[in-house]
Amino acid sequence: MRSNEDHTEGTIGCETAVEAINVRKTYGSGAAKTAAVAGITARFAKGQFTAIVGPSGSGKTTLLHLLAGLDTPTSGRVIIDGVDISTLSDDAISDLRRDRIGFIFQDFNLLPYLTAEQNIELPFTLRGRQPDRQTIRGIARELDIENRLDHKPQEMSGGQRQRVAVARALAGNPAVVFADEPTGALDVKSSRQLLAILRDMASRRGQTIVMVTHDPNAAAYADRALVVRDGLIAADIEHPTAADVTSTLEHDADSPLPLAGGVAAGDGGWSNIASRKEGTR
Ligand SMILES: Nc1ncnc2c1ncn2[C@@H]1O[C@H](COP(=O)(O)OP(=O)(O)OP(=O)(O)O)[C@@H](O)[C@H]1O
Ligand SMILES: [Mg+2]
Prior knowledge:
Layout: E1 6-7, E2 16-27, E3 34-45, E4 49-53, H1 60-67, E5 75-80, E6 83-84, H2 90-100, E7 101-104, H3 116-126, H4 133-142, H5 158-171, E8 176-180, H6 188-205, E9 208-212, H7 216-219, E10 224-229, E11 232-238, H8 242-254
Parallel strand pairs: 1-3, 4-9, 4-10, 7-8, 8-9
Antiparallel strand pairs: 2-3, 2-5, 5-6, 10-11
Helix pairs in contact: 3-5, 4-5, 5-6
């Protein structure tokens, strides 16, 4: 399935956490105009763990930022937890992000001068609310960082830091957790542990998760893999295995599917920026 077709199968009858409707994001102007996201329609069901995979430069981070209200689309609409964010003021979008969305970044994004516990409590502190200590302790126990709560980030391993970031993302009971390459800075063992935690959060708590990754093995933990290429959805795989994702990526690389406008990159589009120019599609 290609481009801006409706990627909703498997979600019919399910409640929707996030929806993108013909979302585009273009950068630059004139001949240099590039569509980082070239018209994507996709629905993310509540409780579903989705991996967004694709080659470098394919538009994964841009799409994630649009879905999370961190960035504004050039055209199209994003609906988060039933709210069309194009109708909101910047302040209202900030509030929605703060109250309904959890983020996990590749480099953890912890505040170095706060302890693990204070970092986890941030979503509450920023809202001027009392942190729910019992919930936070419970999450910390599940993530095996309970005995690290008084430590500052530099006193923890990378895996522990990332689990603090996961605890922070979950503590506010968000509608959606967005993660951009959350295993990017971790070794294989810590990566697997983190992915198993995310898998568990979706299965047991019904936490909606949208995770960007370039790693087919990481994508295999998800319920669904959206393969992005040249700013479009190249494939939508239910219950992906690492082999499914790898072969989809390789298929694209070896024999590119015809793009609108007939552009087929010599390298299969894996790093092709030229084919992303507006005039060619
Ligand atoms: N602020 C920007 N200004 C201009 N072009 C941008 C900007 N942000 C992203 N792009 C371009 O948009 C395209 C998609 O970028 P994006 O960061 O979404 O890719 P990605 O799939 O996340 O890649 P990676 O796997 O390397 O992180 C790239 O060609 C990138 O150069
Ligand atoms: Mg990226």
